[in-house]
Design goal:
0% strand, ADP-ribosylglycohydrolase fold, globular, mainly alpha
Length: 508
């Protein structure tokens, strides 16, 4: 069985800039004042002037109080365009007034507001900006968390490998053969995931495993927020019960697959997962319960639970301790040791970021969850020391590569490396996602999850508006490359659903 899824400018008329009034000119005996060259002319018959006073031809000039103005409120228009007087100006005989509903041309645009129009002048909203203006701050923080995590996930080179799982098997086999060819023939032309005669959509930039397992955790938060489900329990107990139900449902699928296979590890599963997750699900299927499922696990130390913890922090915004406790409850299904410490640290940091805290308090909250005597605690403190002495996130990359990242083990997914890297780059970038994520992606050995963790924290710090529109559109929809049932999930919509589950804050 599987758990129920929560998902089963009009253009303004361009006007000529207003010219400065020329020096006084002698009054002519005619009713029309001469107009400078290249300036559109209009008759002054629309203006009432007192006797024996010089007149001007529809120029926008200031007049003393209590004197009639020349076409009050009128602006100049290019030749061959009709002019309209202000609503209070009397139209002379034999000249039609402005039609009902017709608007006078707008004045010149603000000269200092051209950043979004390529120098055109008036401000136009960037893509997604109009939507952001109407959203609440909590939703913007959650949106930044989800999209930042997805963007970081997509930025790492392993994402293309994960997304290639949606391609036919023979395309991946051919890539492996090309890699073997390069090795045997000493060629430096290395293969990449290929589409050949298949649609290339799965290989385009987009989120992969980290984002989908984060949404897996979000499902539990959504279930707990539904008062009609387990409504007799407190919100915290409902959340923990929902987490257990979510894992148990997956374990049931593992058990069913194991019945058709000689052993659990060789079962064909309806998902793709980290070694720690697959081992934890296998332990659940055989009847083990946490913490044994995470302790008796060959990859108890990896960072799979850290990604889930970032989303679970939504259940306790502003409360790093309770967020860390909930993250540990979930992490025990698949992790132990540094894997659990890392999950607690990420949840604590994100919980504060969701309420608008600055970078330093968020990182301090994470550090408080990392015991000094552990590997992850030592690495985090050393990485932060390096970050404080670095000039920028880019300058920090070689230091982290040489002093934090391990080059011995066959997988670059240890929480003792990826969490310190994410925290250090967040500090070096001063919470700016546009600096932290690219820097994390440069660390190729930890690029499977360090960019996603850095993106989640900096995205929550900066909110949804900190995510460029191009990344927002590329990363908002899941492809289902590891959890097929999540195919098509929209992270922007999910942010709204998660925001609706948050408890009311004191004072509004």
């Amino acid at each position: 069985m599987r758990p129920p899824s929560p998902w089963d400018e009009g253009t303004s008329t361009t006007t000529a800039p207003e010219a400065e009034p020329p020096p006084p000119e002698p009054t002519t005996t005619d009713d029309t004042t001469p107009t400078p060259p290249n300036e559109p002319t209009t008759t002054n018959s629309t203006t009432l002037t007192p006797p024996n006073e010089p007149t001007t031809a529809n120029r926008t000039t200031r007049t003393p109080p209590n004197e009639p103005t020349a076409a009050h409120g009128m602006t100049l228009t290019p030749p061959n365009q009709p002019t309209t007087a202000h609503a209070t100006t009397l139209a002379p005989p034999n000249q039609p007034a402005a039609a009902d509903g017709e608007q006078a041309p707008l004045g010149p645009p603000a000269p200092d507001d051209e950043c979004r129009t390529g120098g055109a002048g008036g401000k136009q909203r960037a893509e997604g900006e109009a939507e952001a203006e109407t959203e609440t701050e909590p939703r913007q923080r959650i949106l930044g968390l989800l999209l930042g995590l997805a963007a970081g996930d997509a930025a790492g080179w392993p994402a293309a490998r994960h997304r290639a799982a949606r391609m036919p098997d023979w395309t991946r086999r051919l890539t492996r053969e090309l890699d073997t060819f390069a090795e045997h023939n000493a060629t430096t032309t290395l293969p990449v995931p290929i589409a050949l005669n298949q649609p290339p959509e799965p290989l385009r930039l987009g989120p992969s495993d980290d984002a989908e397992w984060a949404v897996f955790a979000a499902e539990a938060v959504l279930r707990a927020g539904d008062d009609t489900t387990l409504g007799d329990l407190s919100r915290e107990r409902r959340t923990r019960a929902a987490i257990d139900l979510t894992w148990s449902a997956l374990a049931d699928e593992i058990a069913a697959a194991a019945d058709r296979a000689p052993e659990v590890e060789s079962a064909i599963l309806p998902l793709r997962a980290r070694i720690s997750v697959r081992a934890g699900l296998g332990n659940l299927a055989t009847g083990l319960r946490p913490p044994a499922t995470g302790h008796d696990n060959p990859h108890y130390f990896d960072d799979a639970a850290c990604v889930r913890a970032c989303v679970l922090a939504v259940a306790h915004p502003g409360d790093p301790h309770r967020a860390a406790e909930l993250a540990e409850f979930d992490a025990r299904y698949t992790q132990d040791g540094d894997g659990v410490h890392g999950a607690r640290a990420m949840a604590a940091a994100v919980a504060l970021a969701l309420t608008g805290a600055a970078t330093k308090p968020c990182v301090a909250a994470a550090l408080a969850e990392l015991p000094e005597e552990t590997e992850i605690g030592r690495n985090a403190r050393h990485a932060l020391h390096l970050a404080h002495s670095a000039d920028s996130a880019f300058a920090l990359i070689p230091l982290l590569e040489h002093q934090i990242v391990d080059h011995v083990y066959s997988y670059g997914i240890a929480a003792a490396e990826t969490v310190p890297v994410a925290l250090a780059l967040t500090v070096a970038a001063d919470g700016r996602i546009a600096e932290a994520v690219p820097a994390a992606a440069c660390l190729s050995r930890v690029a499977d999850s360090a960019p996603a963790l850095a993106g989640a924290l900096t995205g929550a710090l900066g909110g949804g508006t900190s995510i460029p529109a191009t990344w927002r559109e590329a990363c908002r929809t899941l492809s289902g490359c590891v959890l097929p049932r999540l195919t098509g999930t929209d992270l922007v919509e999910l942010a709204g659903l998660l925001e609706a589950t948050q408890p009311a804050r004191p004072g509004g």
